[in-house]
Amino acid sequence: MAEAERRAFALITGGDNGIGLALAREFADHGYDLLIAGETESHVADAAHSLSQNGARIETFAGDLGRADQVDALIETVRRIGRPLDIACVNAGIGLGGAFIDTDLATELQMIDLNVRGAVQLSKALVKDMVARGEGQLLFTSSIAATMPDPFEAVYGATKVFLRWFGEALRNELKDSGVGVTVLMPGVTDTNFFNRADMLDTRAGASESKDDPADVARAAFAALRADKDKVLPKLKNKVMGAIAEALPDPIGAQVHRGMSEPGSAG
Question: Where are its TM segments located (predicted)?
Answer without folding.
Answer: none
